[in-house]
Amino acid sequence: xxxxxxxxxxxxxxxxxxxxxxxxxxxxxxxxxxxxxxxxxxxxxxxxxxxxxxxxxxxxxxxxxxxxxxxxxxxxxxxxxxxxxxxxxxxxxxxxxxxxxxxxxxxxxxxxxxxxxxxxxxxxxxxxxxxxxxxxxxxxxxx
Amino acid sequence: xxxxxxxxxxxxxxxxxxxxxxxxxxxxxxxxxxxxxxxxxxxxxxxxxxxxxxxxxxxxxxxxxxxxxxxxxxxxxxxxxxxxxxxxxxxxxxxxxxxxxxxxxxxxxxxxxxxxxxxxxxxxxxxxxxxxxxxxxxxxxxxxxxxxxxxxxxxxxxxxxxxxxxxxxxxxxxxxxxxxxxxxxxxxxxxxxxxxxxxxxxxxxxxxxxxxxxxxxxxxxxxxxxxxxxxxxxxxxxxxxxxxxxxxxxxxxxxxxxxxxxxxxxxxxxxxxxxxxxxxxxxxxxxxxxxxxxxxxxxxxxxxxxxxxxxxxxxxxxxxxxxxxxxxxxxxxxxxxxxxxxxxxxxxxxxxxxxxxxxxxxxxxxxxxxxxxxxxxxxxxxxxxxxxxxxxxxxxxxxxxxxxx
Lengths: 143, 405
Fold this sequence. Notes:
The complex is a heterodimer. By secondary structure, chain A is α+β, with helices and mostly antiparallel strands.
């Protein structure tokens, strides 16, 4: 299946992916309404230093440990996409305790959130990818 | 066609069903459940009382889970005996079910010491099952004074669950600190202060010796008046089905890394099982949910003829603290305003940690314990400050992020 990959050598460390992610998942039409003056809760975040940087989001693992660990049965894998039922999540942070990539974090409401490839929002394809100015983030099939 | 019997209906049982079905779509699965509920998430009972979830949402799997997986579900029935000669499990309704392989996923039972006068206490509860939680909920009022015996995870989660619904909560424990099995004194002290600021009272290094109606007499001479008593002293693994067969048991049913017990064709998983824990290099019962699922899944795969191994090394979690692994190593500390992190290192690998105040992305640390990552290959100084994959070597990082994992 297609996943999000980041090419370190192209990443500028501009953090635009984080803003595009927060906007895409805000449900709002206007970027300024969604983000201006607010704390943002993106599902991708940029790591690194001045020389090397790269965005990290859910890897949609073949054998996801978060799914097996969720105490509420709120995380499942549907058609290859690791997805959270935020209605069932109680925000206990067990998924944070186990994810080797640090890809899950609390949302503004306290329930957990993670990259779901923008398949549930109106974007339809990952906003971090479409908005990356240097094409450092790609959405593609790899073996 | 294989005939599988699962005894128990908790997380390990679900893991076992999903493990079997990952290998064998056809075999017959019978599930014997003492509780008269479809599977629900047991750790959520405190969140239920807190109002963060409800009975519908705390279902661990959807209602059609058993049907979809071709499981014959027998609720409200206990297994009394496993007969390895006849290859059948005797049930308390007089019937029996035959098996090729059994998974014992019977969990644990609250341990209640023989307190003098406990019978005279009208409203007393354990805090283990959905029925316990619903019973406690119907017993408390906004005027209730609640005494909780035991300052472990169960007692404290119970306190958290009901704190806004009762007048007063006192938690007592024989140990000199709260969460004594997972935190050292300093970390426990920080947690205790946090809970006290939330209105919970503690009586530590003390124990109840006697009850008379709504009064507890403590060893120290203290007398505590209460309306509702919660007994959260500890649990005992339900090992009798395997013990009766002469199978190897300690505190739990001893299993190997494939979750097989010492008795042929009998597996065990979850809180009743005692498996190998890579972080301490010995067997122990690690009664946490992720472990139960993964042990159950492993048992299921092996029961169905697959090949899978699992060793505990996840850790224990709680409130605003996270901890994992074991603490028998050199300690590295990172301390700043509102944050205390302790990392334990042995043989140049991370073997455990405690985090207070900053738990973001802690799974990066947990994965280092799980994978026994050599500290020579990472920037450990950076990692102690912040959990970041940037501390891994370029090669390792590119492998993690460049392909399918």
